[in-house]
Design a protein that fits this description.
- The protein is an alpha+beta fold.
- The protein has two domains: 131 residues, no CATH class; 92 residues, no CATH class.
- 38% of the residues lie in helices and 23% in strands.
- It has nine helices and 14 strands.
- The strands form four sheets. Strands 12-11-7-14-13 form a five-stranded antiparallel beta sheet.
- β9 and β10 form a beta hairpin.
- The longest helix has 45 residues.
- The protein is flat, with a radius of gyration of 35 Å.
């Protein structure tokens, strides 16, 4: 034991325990490589299967575009006046649909748009074989078969978004976030849109208008008080600090710090380093009156 007590585990080839550690480590590395290779093979096979399924789907339904064009032409040309005339002639609603050969979904959608049919829509979230996600607004779940065929979408699974959740689910739609109920009201029956997710869901943003800022140098308490408007401010004896009470909370301002007034009316303080990272000065606004260039009161209220 003394012979081997001064070495790290797995580093001495003459040590039996070290040899066992090395053997186990080698085996673990080999198994990890085999596992990674197997995962790559499975992913490649899934992609091949998805491509084969898509190819089969397109061969089986070659007339999607033609069918949809015919249906949409009927939807555009068939008027409520024509519907009323046919019903006066004794045609039933079912007979009108059968004679024009209109799928149930599109016929109900036409009735709904013309105030002849009322229903609470079903909202379905579709996941495709290539892991895309679509939102559909339908009359019944059976509508999916036709709609997915016309949209050239091969479904892997779907779930229903319940009505009580419509106001609690938000989607990026037409350049802004809206809760699902708003989108449902504004959207036609059918495919509402595709939901895109990223590993890092971040948006870049910039302010709509300029903020204002003032620098506290330890002497310009009056300028800071004027800048903070009606908010109560008092000077603390220790450290030449300023205590500013705002409706959003209390700020303790030290000499060498900035106070920013945001467009919402909120005041935020920053150190010089923080301010330089977040902002840049775009222009300066001098206070009214004669200001000496050499005076300590030569303060600027700046716009960022």
């Amino acid at each position: 034991e003394k012979e081997h007590e001064d070495h790290n585990e797995g580093t001495l080839t003459t040590c039996e325990i070290c040899r066992q550690i090395e053997t186990c480590s080698t085996l673990i590395r080999r198994l990890e490589q085999e596992l990674l290779h197997k995962k790559d093979e499975i992913r490649a096979e899934e992609k091949r299967h998805a491509k084969d399924l898509l190819k089969w789907h397109y061969i089986k339904y070659p007339m999607n575009a033609t069918n949809l064009e015919r249906i949409l032409h009927w939807q555009k040309m068939f008027s409520k006046r024509m519907f009323d005339e046919l019903t006066r002639m004794g045609w039933s609603v079912e007979e009108i649909q059968r004679r024009y050969d209109i799928p149930d979904f599109f016929f109900k959608r036409w009735l709904f748009k013309n105030g002849l049919y009322a229903v609470v829509p079903l909202i379905l979230r579709i996941r495709t074989i290539d892991d895309r996600i679509f939102i559909y607004k339908v009359f019944q779940e059976a509508d999916l078969n036709l709609l997915l065929t016309l949209d050239d979408i091969v479904m892997k699974s779907y779930d229903r978004i319940e009505r009580e959740d419509w106001k609690h689910v938000y989607f990026w739609h037409h350049g802004a976030y809206h809760h699902l109920e708003q989108i449902i009201v504004q959207s036609e029956f059918g495919k509402v849109g595709e939901t895109v997710y990223h590993a890092e869901e971040q948006l870049g943003c910039k302010k709509k208008a300029t903020d204002q800022v003032i620098f506290y140098d330890g002497f310009n308490q009056e300028a800071v008080a004027y800048f903070c408007e009606e908010n109560e401010m008092k000077r603390l004896a220790k450290g030449n600090r300023l205590l500013i009470n705002t409706r959003y909370g209390t700020i303790t301002l030290f000499p060498g710090e900035y106070v920013v007034k945001e467009i919402t009316g909120r005041f935020v303080k920053y150190s010089a380093n923080q301010f330089s990272q977040l902002y840049e000065i775009v222009d300066t606004v001098r206070p009214m009156g004669l200001v000496s260039e050499t005076s300590s009161y030569n303060e600027y209220t700046n716009k960022i």
